[in-house]
Amino acid sequence: MLVLGIESSCDETAAALVEDGRVVLSNVVASQIKTHKSFGGVVPELASREHLRNIGYVVWKAFDDAGKTHRDIDGIAVTQGPGLIGSLLVGVSFAKALAYSVKKPLVPVNHIEGHIFSAFIENPGIEYPFLALVVSGGHTSLIYSREQGQYQSVARARDDAAGEALDKLAKYLGLGYPGGPIIDKLSKEGDPRTFSFSIPKISDGSLDFSFSGFKTAALRHIQQTGIKPRRSGGKVSRVILNLVASYQQAIINTLISQTRKAVSRLHPRSILLVGGVACNSQLRLIFKEVFEKSDTAIRVYYPSPVLTTDNAAMIAAAGASRLHPSSSLDLELNAFADLRLC
Ligand code: KG4
Ligand code: ZN
């Protein structure tokens, strides 16, 4: 089954052709980093306009790279939510118009489910039940699944998502955008033991995440000790290297600690580490070390970086699991900014 995936939930316009949910024939991503960089974050109105400008070319290129035409596909999968509503609507409207004109079925996909499926593309043999840590710029959640298509929410972010916390500190310190990969790189030169962040305790027994306290503590420390943000293009000072390394470590420690508690409650066979922050080199390393070495019955999976950040191959893979070539096209299909998976 050949599926065209379309993704436009945030600031990447993406299209991909995927065979049988796992063979990626093409994977095109038009990033908007240049557009949003000077604002230090995604500007929703600009994002929608960029999607509009790019989507036709991105979809055409996905067909061209794969050497296929619309006649070859069995259906289209599109991200329906969650995300920025203006951005989502560009993808959904384009997908509906294309599906109507080429007479192919269209299946809506939840972006979070897409991230979960990103792990299956390269590892089709992942064993159930699994626990997925979805950790990105917009989401931090633990999701448990006993069987394909069934999801149970275990924990979510009460305030900032992990990627958002990294992006915000990087912006404040003048390090650049997006902050996650920059902090990942700089942390290798800093000492993570320099500054100790206390991990918040949520008293109701839930495994929810909270990262905004780290940001407040870091900003207070910056103000009290007079740390100056980096000047444009200047060298990053030792105190900043140490601070970002400690901050990244605090976020990783929280992710590990909540995942560990979920593992001991639910006993999954597999752990999936997905979403943009799952590109983090230290997080990948520690996850394998903590969960595979301490319990040899558990396997940890994370996708290649190109499938970890937002892309349409993961949307096509998730869509393939639900697409029936005989299903009719639902022209009422709409986008939802706060669509829930479970
Ligand atoms: O999944 P994604 O592309 O978009 C959302 O669905 O949000 O994730 C983007 C997030 C950003 O916050 C970015 O800073 C973070 O992923 N990110 C990283 C790394 N690469 C991307 N965070 C930490 N380390 C990285 N290497
Ligand atoms: Zn995402």
Your description of this structure?
The protein is α/β, with parallel strands linked by helices and 342 residues long. The protein has two domains: 2-115 and 307-322, Nucleotidyltransferase, domain 5 (2-Layer Sandwich); 128-268, ATPase, nucleotide binding domain (Nucleotidyltransferase, domain 5, 2-Layer Sandwich). Helices cover 43% and strands 18% of the residues. The protein has eleven helices and ten strands. A five-stranded mixed beta sheet has the order 3-2-1-4-5, with helices on both faces. A five-stranded mixed beta sheet has the order 8-7-6-9-10, sandwiched between helices. Strand 2 (12-19) and strand 3 (23-31) form a beta hairpin. It is globular, with a radius of gyration of 20 Å. The two termini are 27 Å apart. Bound molecules: 5'-O-[(R)-(carboxyoxy)(hydroxy)phosphoryl]adenosine (KG4) and zinc ion (ZN). Zinc ion binds next to helix 4.
Which features characterize this protein?
single chain, binds 5'-O-[(R)-(carboxyoxy)(hydroxy)phosphoryl]adenosine, Nucleotidyltransferase, domain 5, five-stranded mixed β-sheet, alpha/beta, globular, 43% helix, binds zinc ion, 11 helices, 342 residues
Order of strands in the sheet with most strands: 3-2-1-4-5
Bin the helical content: 40-55%
Bound molecules: 5'-O-[(R)-(carboxyoxy)(hydroxy)phosphoryl]adenosine, zinc ion
Helix and strand composition category: alpha/beta
Global geometry: globular
Please count the beta strands (DSSP E, at least 2 residues each). 10
Number of alpha- plus pi-helical segments? 11
Report the uncertain regions: none
